[in-house]
Amino acid sequence: MPHSLRAKLSGLRYKGILEDKDYKRLCKALDNEGVLEQIRAEILNFKEKCNASDYLGCGILEIIDKYR
Which of the residues 10, 15, 30, 64 has an alpha carbon 20 to 30 A from that of 23? Predict the structure, then answer.
């Protein structure tokens, strides 16, 4: 997450508009936003290597579990 966005969220927390728990939840969600693109890219790589019948057997579940 960009520092400027974190600073704006922190300002909202300081003003009392945003609670601490909401601030932490938003920061965590925004920090993990790029993880979904990594998962998608790995799944597409495996999909190209596998045929439709063994799609799940080619490591797709392992990729998902790796990012849990």
Answer: 64
